[in-house]
Every structure is written in C-alpha cells, then in structure tokens.
Amino acid sequence: MYPFFRAIFFEVIGLWSAVQIWNNLKTGIIDTGRGWRMERDTNPAGFWLYTLFNVLFVAFAIAVLLNAIGLIADPFPVVNRWLRFDFR
C-alpha cells in the first residue's frame, strides 16, 4: 500500500502543478502570490524555465503513478542518480 499513498500525494501536487501551468500559459503571467511576478513578454527565458520545471514535476508525478500500478520501476533511484540526493 505504500506506493499508492506516495502516488496519491504526488498526483495531487502534480495535478495542482498542471493547473498552474495551464493558468500561466493562458495569462502569460506567473504570479506566486508572494509578491513575485514574471511576465512572458518581459522575461521569456525565466517564464519558460519556470514552466519547464513544472512540466518536469508533472512528468515525475505520472512516473510515480505508473510505478504504483506496476508498469515501470521506481523513479526515485533514477532521480537520485541524476541529482545526487539521498532520499532515505
């Protein structure tokens, strides 16, 4: 049951991230709500980099879901090799 709880957690955050991507692309403005704003016209590189990180997080959430239902291997060791973090 542990992979399913982990999948639920990441799917909720991934869904929230996907909604934020949709709103950011629709308006062209990233607003964090903490006084930080980025517009697509004035800072296109930062806007697309921020969007890319959100897309990568959604992809990771999909990988965690596929792992929970048994279609792929655990994505955490792969991320650990790429980023050299210790997830233990």
* Average residue pLDDT: 87
Q: What is the number of independent domains? A: 1
Helix content: 55-70%
Cα-to-Cα separation, first versus last residue: 18 Å
Oligomer: single chain
**Helix/strand structural class:** mainly alpha
Shape: elongated
Beta content? 5-15%
Spatially, the strands of the biggest sheet line up as 1-2
Name the helix and strand elements from N-terminus to C-terminus, one letter apiece: HEEHH
pLDDT < 50 stretches: none
Strands, total number: 2
Q: State the major sheet.
A: 2 strands, antiparallel
The rounded Rg comes to 15 Å
Topology (SSEs and partners):
Blueprint: H1 2-27, E1 29-31, E2 37-39, H2 44-68, H3 75-83
Antiparallel strand pairs: 1-2
Helix pairs in contact: 1-2
Provide a descriptive summary of the structure in words.
This protein is mainly α and 88 residues long. It has one domain. It contains 3 helices and 2 strands; from the N terminus they run H-E-E-H-H. It has helices spanning 2-27, 44-68, 75-83, and strands spanning 29-31, 37-39. A two-stranded antiparallel ribbon has the order 1-2. A hairpin with a 5-residue loop joins strand 1 and strand 2 (37-39). The longest helix is centred in the first third of the chain and has 26 residues, at 2-27. The mean pLDDT is 87.
